[in-house]
Amino acid sequence: MLTVHNGGSHDWANMPLDETAAGNAMDCDFTFRLYSIVREQMKEKGLHHVYDKLIKKAAYNLSEVEDIGVRVDREYLAELDVICQEELQSLVEVIKELSPVDDLNPNSTKQLAELLFSTSGFNLTPVEFSAKTKTPSITESHMSTLIASSSGEAKTFIQTLLRYKSRFKQHKTYVKGVEKALDYNGDGRIYSNYNFSTTVTGRLSCSLYSCGKEKKGVSFHTLPRPEEGDPVNIRKLIIPDEGNVFLAADFSQAELRVLAQCCRDENLIKAFNSGQDLHSFTASLIYSKPIEKVTKVERQVAKSVSFLIVYGGGPHKLSEQIGKPVGYCKNIFSEYQNSFPKVFSWMKLVHKSVRANGHAVSLFGRRRNLSNVNSPIKKYQFRALRQGMNFVIQSSASDIMLQALNRLKERLEEANLDFDLLATVHDSVELQCPKSQLKQVLEVTKSALTDTSDFKDDFNLDFIVPFEVDIEVGNSFGEAIETEFTPNGSVTNLSEIEAYVENN
After folding, report:
1. Sign (positive or negative) of CA dihedral 212, 215, 221, 224
2. Residue 359 pairs with which residues in a beta bridge?
3. Strand intervals (E) in 181-254
4. Fold designation for 74-176
5. Rounded to an integer, what distance in angstroms lies between the CA atom of residue 415 and that of residue 408?
């Protein structure tokens, strides 16, 4: 770890102890002085409450998560290394065979650009360009777009190349990255850093922890989910300690529930309170048909519209996503507006507030300054309005998750249960507990994460929609079985879960 001392950079490992002690003392002193200043600024802006009631406790709890780290399945790590290397070698052979260029390096952006877009190669027409160099982009998204307009060997080449890039990244970032971290730590565990101040929404981010000049470990927020049938499951690397099981509790549609809380649309509230599938319910209104007759395609369209509303997208973006004409998508949006009118009324209120105040405010009082809303350039204005609405929803959902994490830890401790919080990934929390206490931990977790009563006490927020969580149990982060509960929160399939844990 590097630090600045007396105007220069020094290696902590080689710094004299008296200098290290003096430097640390000054860090504490100046941090305390700054705290008093920042504290007053928070009070002036009405932000001290969310810090006192939420952030301070969450920061402490997540510092414990960082210290605990997670255990790695070394045998599976070695297995993944072999699988990845063998597949990469095979893919390189196919790529070179398809390439009209000799000695192609599939990791060379320059060579790939020449191969794809020059007359000596596949002579494809680029549709995306680098903003900096103005040359054809070779991002994965661009190549995915090119697949639709290519054929024959060019198409096969791009598909193979994308497969290679995906597997190469998995191998380098996760397999070899975890290997290096394990070698450095020497305790069979890897660690992450959780950051409270790196996103404009206040949403947590997760990063590699620092080891001297290097970054090691793993970011839980980037661990990829495996595609169906893929032998490489990176998440299976993360396993509980001996005698424990792994639990992952995931909030269901947290941001859309926040939307319902904000806009108070009757139909949206009805969907959540009835316990019906939200996207099927939405589709039934959009397409004017009974919910039981909604098709998978119609449900997916409804789901896309709901999230586009949250993130500020419109008919044109929907058209790109579902491959339908813009006119068709405009009609879908119109039907959505007719079905959920208060969603759009609320959006207008948010836009009005952002224009008037130059900032957006979350349910918990967080602010995001959006000065571009007064820009003479229209696209900057529209972007600020979109960001304002997204901020209200995403920031509020993030704070709900943090409060839930705090509440969960408190409830598990009150119940005198053994557990370790291991991670939080966006709208989920991951933990481990002894197999002997699984039933109790599951039921406390379910109760703690769905209880919203403390929001009324701490933040004067009376939630009008329920929060639901899906909890999975397994012997790793990557393989698990879903837990089923009665309406009063009792586990109904414990024997099935125990059998699954025992046999997998």
Report:
1. negative
2. 369
3. 189-190, 192-195, 205-211, 214-216, 238-239, 244-251
4. Taq DNA Polymerase; Chain T, domain 4 (1.20.1060)
5. 11
Q: What is the pLDDT of residues 399-434, one digit of tens each?
A: 999 999 999 999 999 999 999 999 998 899 999 999
- How many whole angstroms separate alpha carbon 443 and alpha carbon 472? 12
For 32-77, write each residue's pLDDT tens digit. Answer: 899 889 888 888 888 888 888 899 999 999 999 999 999 999 999 9
Residue 324 in this model has a pLDDT that exceeds 60: yes
Token duo for residue 241: 């300690």
Of the CATH numbers 3.40.50.300, 1.10.8.60, 1.10.150.20, 3.30.540.10, which one belongs to the domain with range 255-390? Answer: 1.10.150.20
How far apart, in Å, are the Cα atoms of 411 and each of 301, 385, 455? 39, 39, 15
Residue 194: CA atoms inside 13 Å, Cβ hemisphere, count? 24
CB atoms closer than 10 angstroms to residue 301: 25
φ, ψ of residue 267 in degrees (nearest 5):
-70, -40
Please write the tens of the pLDDT for every residue from 245-291: 999 999 999 999 999 999 999 999 999 998 889 999 999 999 999 99
Residue appearing with tokens 């599938």: 277
Alpha-carbon span 49 to 208, nearest angstrom = 30
**What is the C-alpha separation between 115 and 121, in angstroms, rounded?**
4
Nearest residue to 442 via CA among 424, 461, 415, 465: 415
**Helix orientation angle between 254-263 and 296-311, rounded to the nearest 10 degrees:** 60
Q: Cα separations (Å) of 435 from 110, 192, 486?
A: 53, 25, 21
Query: Exposure pattern of 420-444 as b/e (b: 16+ CB <10 Å)?
Result: bbbbbbbbbbbbbbbeebbebbbbb
Give the pair of three-digit tokens for residue 392.
């209200």
CATH number of 239-254+399-503: 3.30.70.370
Domain ranges for the chain? 74-176, 239-254+399-503, 255-390
How far is 312 from 396, CA to CA, in rounded Å? Answer: 16
